[in-house]
Write a structure and sequence with these properties.
The complex is a heterodimer of chains A (about 400) and B (about 350). With about 400 residues, chain A is an alpha+beta fold. Chain A contains twelve helices and eight strands. Chain B has 14 helices and 14 strands. Classes of the chains: A alpha+beta (about 400), B alpha/beta (about 350). The interface between A and B is large, with 49 and 59 residues.
Chain lengths: ~400, ~350
């Protein structure tokens, strides 16, 4: 095999010409300009015409409504919100609720999905059949049905607040949700957080050092005792020196509901459960396919090196499988995020419910609101796949070509 | 998703139609041979399909009356069930000719939606439904309660105003449809279900044991319900408006479904005008001379329709109250048909 002689680098104009016009050269470039201009003109016409027609029908248009007072309340808001805030605030509340349920759903879906996949591949007959049964049952039932099942059949069957299931008289489980004591910061709170941060950073540095020692000199350092010591010891020390970091506000039954404490609403629980178990079934299949795509010689090689099954999977098989797993895996994350818009069926205040629902019908500005909502889902999806692409890129780099 | 498709229809219509919206709705309806009428997804007494799949109810009767006036056939209607959120978009996009779906008349809806209310078919107000076992006698005892509400209604804002005004705390859970809302209320997720009082009576029929639930005496808002049509077609606006007035007027004149044919032969000038044996009032609307006779023979007068659908003659058993005629203690009033 002969090595081709290196070509001289193309001239700048030739390079530019090729980039802009392709083989057709400058004529092609001119055509492209024309095409883009025509597209821009078409878009402008559509928007301008829509504006004119809406105006002719005297339907209010534009985004001015975003500053108006919303005048309605929402059951779960991650940022302070009241009825006298603007529609912009409602939008943020809904967006954060959507992000919350998506992120937590993605976390649990991934966890359950990997566990089920490993279970399905396990040599244990019972475990693999149970995992297989889970996948076949969950992925073949409609998601909306599962959401309603969790909400109306499971969570609604819990007792009313007055008869709620309580633990130590401070944790309460009822059909109004799960109420827990709420931590309130004491003066000792800041040193406590600082101690945790220091402990985490020190742990990371130590791990890196241990890894370097292992790779460079083949020395294995047991870091676990030090890590545990730091992670528990430092915060404990801070608590002893500066006093308890938090005190708790205990919930108590007042009137119809619990006052005080923090509450996880059942709508959130039902939606997260349904989304994560449903998506987990698909992720499990993707992970299983990925692991099976790795040649079984790798597993055997691991065994012959004396590694245990778990270590072989973790260190050898899964990293190689990730390349196959990642692209369809990203799809599942996107699906989960978009499926979270089914929230409106059980009254979880997500973006579609409070913004494309209540706000839309109060202002009547359907085109603007649906456009914003679609834009938001698009951005969330693009960001998610960008993050996953970045992860895939890093993975590919660490695995080599 | 129905809503998204409606929005696309609206967006496409707005973006690509070059003519202004001077749609001749009456002509469109006649050409189509059918009236397209937006109704609820099933609210007993107002608009719901019966066991044979025929739509019945008070709001449905308005549409039947319009169809009767145009076609002399109250069955030439396509009913389009709409959720509270979708209703205005369906009207704006031209999917329906008239919206007759327990919709509250407010200033902002009248001005910003490109649509007009044609009148008040039912004077309603917002109330609260609670379980009897809670032993609550007044809405003022509802501090800290969880409240179920259907999203996309004026109800959510009234609720916020009422609890804020009375310095009470509450938790609101908003659902997409009336069915989901009442189911959550029944399951115990909420202590209270709030909506227009007429709707509370109707939804109460859907729970397992209606007698265990009670509507509280407080009415916290004015909810005049009426039909809506698009801006820009005054003739169609007049037809829908006068269809309701014809029903109210017929009750005032003592015309009923039974005696209509007989009274049509009467010599009384006001009856002759109403039935079109004298003058051409119906033709001025773009309809036929016997428009009122057609309406009354199809659905009866206002009082008959009320009794049959929501009043004492129905399962709901709601009293006439404000909806009684003006000369009998209520405020239903029709301008003279002359």
């Amino acid at each position: 095999m002969s090595i081709e002689p290196r070509k001289p680098p193309p001239q700048f104009t030739a390079k530019l010409q090729r980039a802009l016009g392709g083989r057709a050269g400058w004529a092609g470039f001119a055509l492209q300009i024309l095409f883009v201009a025509a597209l821009a003109w078409l878009c402008y016409e559509i928007v301008a015409n829509a504006r004119a027609n809406l105006q002719a029908q005297r339907i209010t248009a534009g985004f001015g409504f975003m500053a108006n007072t919303a005048g309605f309340d929402v059951s779960q808001a991650l940022i302070p919100y009241s009825g006298s805030d603007s529609y912009t605030r409602v939008f943020l509340v809904g967006l954060l609720n959507t992000l919350l349920v998506s992120i937590i759903g993605i976390f649990f879906a991934t966890l359950i999905g990997f566990l089920v996949a490993l279970g399905r591949l396990s040599p244990n007959w019972l475990l693999s059949r149970i995992s297989g049964g889970y996948v076949e049952l969950i992925r073949n039932l409609p998601l909306l049905f599962q959401i309603l099942f969790w909400y109306l059949a499971v969570l609604a069957a819990l007792p009313s607040p007055r008869q709620s299931i309580s633990l130590f008289d401070s944790f309460f489980l009822s059909n109004r949700g799960f109420v827990v004591p709420r931590p309130i910061g004491n003066p000792g709170f800041e040193p406590f957080v600082a101690a945790i941060v220091i402990a985490v950073i020190a742990t990371l540095l130590l791990q890196r050092y241990a890894r370097k020692q292992l790779f460079d000199h083949g020395r294995m350092i047991r870091t676990l005792p030090y890590v545990l010591g730091m992670l528990i010891g430092l915060p404990l020390l801070s608590a002893l020196l500066f006093g308890a970091p938090v005190k708790f506000e205990y919930p108590e039954l007042k009137g119809f509901n619990f006052a005080g404490g923090s509450r996880v609403i059942p709508e959130f629980v039902a939606l997260t459960l349904a989304l994560s178990t449903y998506t987990a079934a698909f992720i499990a299949e993707i992970v299983r396919a990925g692991i099976q795509s790795v040649h079984k010689g790798q597993m055997e090689a691991g065994s012959s090196l004396g590694l245990q099954r778990g270590s072989t999977l973790r260190l050898i098989v899964v990293p190689q499988a990730m390349r196959v797993i990642l692209p369809p895996h990203t799809n599942q994350y996107l699906n989960l995020t978009k499926n979270s818009s089914l929230a409106v069926a059980i009254g979880y205040p997500d973006l579609v419910s409070v913004f494309a629902g209540t706000t839309l019908s109060q202002t009547g500005q359907a085109i603007e609101i649906i456009a914003i909502t679609m834009g938001v889902y698009l951005v969330i999806s693009l960001v998610t796949s960008a993050i996953m692409s970045f992860y895939g890129w890093r993975l590919g780099r660490s695995l080599g070509p | 998703m129905k809503r998204v498709s409606l929005v696309f229809t609206l967006a496409l219509a707005a973006a690509f139609s070059t003519e202004a919206a001077t749609a001749q709705t009456l002509k469109t309806v006649k050409d189509r041979g059918m009236l397209s009428c937006g109704v609820s997804q099933g609210l007993p007494g107002f608009s719901s399909p019966d066991d044979k799949g025929n739509w019945t109810g008070f709001d449905v009767d308005i549409c039947r009356a319009i169809a009767a006036a145009i076609f002399n056939d109250a069955t030439k209607i396509k009913f389009v069930p709409l959720s509270a959120k979708d209703r205005f978009t369906a009207l704006q996009s031209g999917e329906i000719d008239v919206l007759s779906r327990n919709t509250t008349w407010t200033l902002s809806r009248d001005t910003s939606l490109g649509a007009n209310f044609t009148g008040v078919t039912y004077y309603d107000g917002q109330g609260f439904l609670v379980k009897k076992s809670l032993k609550v006698n007044s809405a003022l005892e509802l501090n800290s309660a969880s409240v179920c509400v259907q999203t996309g209604t004026t109800t959510e804002q009234n609720l916020a105003d009422y609890f804020k005004g009375n310095n009470m705390k509450y938790e609101v859970i908003a659902f997409g449809t009336a069915d989901e809302t009442i189911k959550a209320y029944e399951s115990g997720r909420c202590d209270v279900f709030t909506s227009d009082v007429s709707q509370l009576y109707a939804e109460r029929l859907k729970v397992a044991n209606p007698a265990d639930h009670v509507v509280l005496p407080e009415v916290i808002s004015k909810e005049p319900l009426g039909p809506m049509v698009r801006h820009g077609d005054d003739q169609w606006f007049d037809i829908v408006k006068w269809t309701l007035f014809a029903m109210v007027g017929a009750e005032e004149l003592g015309i009923t479904q039974k005696n209509a044919d007989e009274l049509a032969k009467s010599n009384k000038p006001e009856l002759r005008r109403a039935f079109g044996t004298d003058g051409n009032l119906g033709e001025q609307l773009g309809l036929t001379k016997d428009w009122l006779l057609r309406i009354v023979k199809a659905v009866g007068n206002y009082g008959e329709s009320f009794d049959r659908n929501v009043g004492p003659g129905s399962k709901l058993g709601i009293a006439r109250g404000l909806n009684q005629l003006w000369n009998k203690g209520g405020i239903q009033y029709a301008p003279p048909i002359r």
